[in-house]
Design goal:
The protein is an alpha+beta fold and 215 residues long. The protein has 7 helices and 5 strands; from the N terminus they run βαβαβαββαααα. It has a 5-stranded antiparallel sheet, sandwiched between helices. InterPro entries: Endonuclease_MobA/VirD2.
Length: 215
């Protein structure tokens, strides 16, 4: 089963689209759009904002859907599941879905326009609505016969609040690739690890030396 995470990022719309669609992580057939064309998604989302005169403030919402490696899911099916999840949760909003092909860790990125193309309302959601997003995800995954993934334990979740700080410059196209790649590897290992030991093992398997210090 997949796990849904809401990512709190303040990067530019252009930057996040470039980030989730970069060639080394995905390919054209694994990029889809809900109510938008993947090839013109930036222009379409900006046009929606301009039509309703809502070009300031938060430009998008970013979500990640991470799948259990034990599901042996193929990339196309992962993207299909992601598209279904977006269709059920973001009526009236343009959504870009990009499936990343990280070895042993398939996951979808969702870039949701912050302005509705139907009536110009801004996308806002409460903790209760976020939980509903996760419930919809669970139902879709159960329908597809996917395995259950538990949330990471609390001894490693402190990384979740800061992991995208490493990539903030990359969202704007100014970050160093080494920092970006390292941040992504940390992010990926977090999503499949349930304990500190599993996280360290996952990173070491990727060639990193981990010096974990409890504070």
């Amino acid at each position: 089963m997949a796990v849904i995470k809401a990512v709190n990022s303040k990067g530019s719309l252009d930057g996040i689209i470039k980030y989730v669609t970069r060639e080394e992580k995905t390919e054209e057939k694994l990029i889809s759009g809900k109510d938008c064309s993947p090839s013109n998604v930036l222009e379409e989302m900006k046009a929606t904002k301009e039509i309703f005169n809502k070009t300031t403030g938060r430009q998008y919402k970013h979500f990640i859907q991470s799948f259990d490696p034990n599901d042996n899911l193929d990339y196309m099916k992962a993207n299909k599941i992601g598209l279904e999840w977006a269709e059920k949760n973001f009526k009236g909003f343009e959504v870009l879905i990009s499936t990343h092909k990280d070895k042993g860790h398939i996951h979808n990125h969702f870039v949701v326009n912050s302005v509705s193309f139907e009536d110009g309302r801004k996308l806002r959601y409460s903790n209760k609505e976020l939980q509903n997003f996760k419930n919809v995800n669970d139902r879709i995954c159960e329908k597809e016969g996917l395995n259950v993934v538990r949330e990471p334990s609390k001894d490693i979740t402190s990384f979740n609040h800061n992991k995208y700080k490493v990539m903030e410059k990359a969202f704007n196209g100014t970050g160093e690739s080494y920092l970006l790649n390292t941040g992504l590897e940390v992010s990926n290992s977090l999503k499949v690890s349930k304990t500190k030991e599993e996280f360290i093992k996952s990173m070491e398997e990727k060639g990193y030396k981990v010096n974990w210090k409890d504070t």
